[in-house]
Design brief:
Length: about 375
């Protein structure tokens, strides 16, 4: 078969995992659920790549290879959740180190990093990384190990200049790691913009069907930190199972199509909400008045994403009433699936300063007219 590295992302995804299983002739990758692998009479592995399932499984490697190629990276590692991937990266920071993380991001990331770093006597500086000058100033305070950026951010939809963040990270000797979950490899590639490591919660749009937990780290190049992460994953057992990896590969085969539809829907919905008299403001980088629009247009050539937030006019009760009236938007916590979701963030995390009137929506692959009609009836036409 032609070298997949020479192909466009849409082709790479459609053929994810290889087009033919040569042993059976099947057009999809096989699943090997074995937990251990046999050796010959001389005690040599029959397959030198497979000794024990914790670090070795063919379909897991296939999914990792596809994701690494999509991002333009050297290698990828799958984990059983996005948080497991994040934890694996931060566990590589030595006790007494220092990390810089973006403020106002996915709350569980912030909470876990704070707790972990407190236990390990690691200094944590939090800063709005969409403000390049503020990030540079924090990095200038002294050496650091990791600069962590989430762009677009969840739920504020702020855009961070990855190239500027890389310059700031370099100034303090840190690796730049980017959570690109709300974008996907179809829309942007942080490694090509300067990042050292990119993370995705593959639970979200990469799988796209709300039925697989997973996370992935992809590195631009093999470093001592990356080798430590590889060793830690193999030893600690934070691995994805073969069935989950197979489902992930299956979901990836339609990712380009799904993302294209979802982004198109999101653009139409953002315009509708931006013009609605019962909406105070819309947080979506596809809108020209969004503070990060120009940067997002440059960094996200594939589109502005499928995640957005909007503030309902009124109070908390009004926002909850609007969410409660929605019929097509499921009231659930997640993003990136083919089904559209709505979440009242203040109910989930009232302690983080989220406005009581903010609703976050993940736009799915339904018809845009139906989704707009649902939003319209919920808000009041």
């Amino acid at each position: 078969m032609t070298n997949f590295k020479d192909m466009q992302p849409e082709t790479l995804l459609a053929q994810a995992g290889g087009s033919i299983d040569m042993q059976s002739g099947g057009v999809v990758p096989p699943i090997q659920p074995a937990t251990t692998y046999v050796r010959d009479e001389s005690y040599n592995p029959l397959n030198e790549n497979n000794i024990y399932a914790r670090p070795h499984n063919d379909v897991v490697r296939q999914a990792e290879d596809v994701l690494a190629q999509l991002e333009g990276g050297t290698a990828g590692l799958l984990f059983p959740s996005g948080m497991a991937a994040i934890a694996a990266l931060f566990r590589a920071v030595p006790s007494g180190g220092r990390v810089v993380i973006q403020s106002g991001i996915y709350w569980n990331t912030t909470k876990w990093v704070r707790d972990f770093c407190e236990r390990r006597q690691i200094d944590v500086d939090e800063v709005d990384t969409s403000d390049a000058a503020a990030l540079a100033a924090v990095c200038a305070k002294g050496p650091a190990n990791i600069v962590w950026v989430e762009t677009p951010s969840n739920p504020w939809l702020k855009i961070t200049d990855v190239a500027a963040a890389k310059k700031a990270a370099d100034s303090c000797g840190a690796l730049l790691a980017v959570d690109s979950t709300a974008a996907s490899p179809v829309l942007t590639n942080p490694l090509k913009l300067g990042a050292d490591i990119v993370m995705h919660s593959t639970t979200k749009v990469i799988n796209g069907h709300s039925d697989v937990l997973g996370g992935v780290l992809i590195t631009k190049k093999i470093t001592s930190v990356w080798e430590d992460i590889v060793t830690d994953r193999a030893s600690a057992g934070a691995v994805m199972g073969p069935f989950e990896a197979w489902l992930l590969l299956r979901g990836m085969r339609t990712m380009a199509l799904r993302v294209d539809r979802m982004v198109d829907n999101a653009m139409k919905i953002s315009a509708f909400l931006d013009d609605h008299p019962k909406v105070d403001s819309v947080l979506y980088p596809g809108l020209e008045d969004h503070t990060g629009h120009a940067l997002a247009k440059e960094q996200m050539p594939g589109g502005f994403g499928f995640l957005m937030s909007f503030l309902v006019k009124g109070d908390r009760e009004m926002a909850l009433l609007v969410a409660g009236k929605m019929k097509l938007f499921h009231r659930a916590t997640s993003l990136g699936g083919v089904e559209s979701l709505v979440e009242h963030r203040h109910t989930i995390e009232p302690h983080t300063g989220i406005p009581e009137t903010l609703l976050r929506i993940s736009v799915g692959a339904e018809h845009a007219d139906d989704l707009i009609a649902d939003l319209g009836q919920a808000l009041g036409q």
